[in-house]
Amino acid sequence: MTREPRIVIIGAGIAGIATAVTLQRAGFHDFTILEKGDDVGGVWHWNHYPGLTCDIPSQLYQFSFAPKPDWAGIFAQGDEIQSYLRGVVEQFGLGDRLRLTSEVTSTVFSGATWHVVTTDGAELEADFVIAATGVLHHPFTPDIAGLDSFKGDLVHTARWDDDIETGGRRIAVIGNGSTGVQIVSALQRDAAHITHFVRTPQWVIWAPMGLSQPTVLARVLHRLPALHRRFYGVLLRGSRILTDIAVRPTWQRRLAQNYARWCLRLQIRDRELRDRLTPDYQPFCKRQVISASYYRAIRAGNADVVTAEIEEITPRGIRTADGREHDVDLLILATGFQAHNYMRPMKLHGRDGLDIDDAWAKGPRAYRMTAIPGFPNFFTVLGPNSPTGSVSLQYSSELTARYIAQWLQRFRDGEFGTVEVTEQATTKFNDDVAAALGPTVWNTGCNSWYLTDEGNIDLWPYDRKTMTAMLARPDDRDFHIA
Ligand SMILES: Cc1cc2nc3c(=O)[nH]c(=O)nc-3n(C[C@H](O)[C@H](O)[C@H](O)COP(=O)(O)OP(=O)(O)OC[C@H]3O[C@@H](n4cnc5c(N)ncnc54)[C@H](O)[C@@H]3O)c2cc1C
Fold first, then answer.
1. Full-model pTM
2. I want to staple 421 with a disulfide (CB 3.0 to 4.6 A). Which of 58, 116, 192, 371 is the partner?
3. Looking at the predicted structure, is the pLDDT value of residue 454 above 90?
């Protein structure tokens, strides 16, 4: 007996789109993508602040099944990535299966199927649910005294208002992750004055982020798709350098770390400023910030870096612990996200009513990034322990989706009704991951958004080859198959 699995995919970012296309190409057509936003693209839809640029080369930051020959830049800007993702949705005809402005509020397992409810009142019955809900999704607003009292314009980068005037104004930017660095670099030139509030200095490495992609390359890649595929393969293999830097203390790591130190030394000649900007932890320990123009921007006459602690936001600006008042017209929070909220605040109840909040009381955990004990016929794509900056996210998403497709095929063949990963296999995987994280650069003594509230590092400590081997095919010994 064969039966068509009914599938719900939650989220239409990179992970959701990769999943939908991969399932479709594997012959599964009964799926619905539910997306909370009013457009696809995930973070590339929600974020549109000035200067938003992807720090992975655009020829690599794309799906294997949708190569784009003609990126404008070697590193793409946010809006180009968003329109690429929109184009992929069109190219693969996903529009009919996509419901925008449909936030999933509840996903409950009945014992045989999943019952999914959205904010617009829709109710869906599904045999499988795949959560591709992202991690950098809920903006984090710091609890700073007086924030509500500020009388100027206040905006979080993740909810940027395109109507906000930035030219000729006194601007304060709080936060110096990739976003803070990008927005300071973008706004400095036209601002009356820009002040960057930096609590913990970051290593900022130089790369030619503004470089255009040569048109001749686009023409060649367009004419020779086989060459383009090979080029993508070369980039994918070459990206191994990112894994080498991250997971083991190798000469590649030392070289990259020295490069980071040189970038600071060569670009900031003022000793006092350089001292203030020198982090007290190793380069690459936090999500590495890459910029071609940040150090130049903050050296400018209309720019300041303030490392004194923020004491209070006042109606006119910011008061720091050294007693200084910084008057500003526009206050920008580049303060990131609540990064470990995976899937929440959705109500998610698995077998026997198990609540995800209870299952994850000690922090998010999954088996090989994708399966959670107690949640049958439920998978995550780019779930817990997924890579950030060390293995291509598109590769990881497509691989995970192909893995899930194998379960779907077996369901279709009538081999099982429910599949659920065992607690034992999940514990073993997580123990192995914890051990493997030991020698990674993320474990060299910095505080970063990679750390969960429990102090675990929520990242992938292996290389792409190991990931591929782990998700090549399901290992039945690790699952309850009913
Ligand atoms: C500002 C910013 C810049 C970044 N820059 C880089 C970079 O330069 N290089 C890099 O490698 N990575 C970067 N990233 C990381 C980025 O998160 C990943 O590259 C990737 O886009 C994540 O894709 P995703 O599909 O997993 O998640 P997302 O893109 O977050 O997509 C998840 C989607 O799920 C939807 N969703 C969530 N909950 C629900 C629900 N309950 N119901 C319905 N829909 C829901 C969300 O609306 C969202 O559209 C950046 C992230 C941010 C925020």
1. 0.97
2. 371
3. no
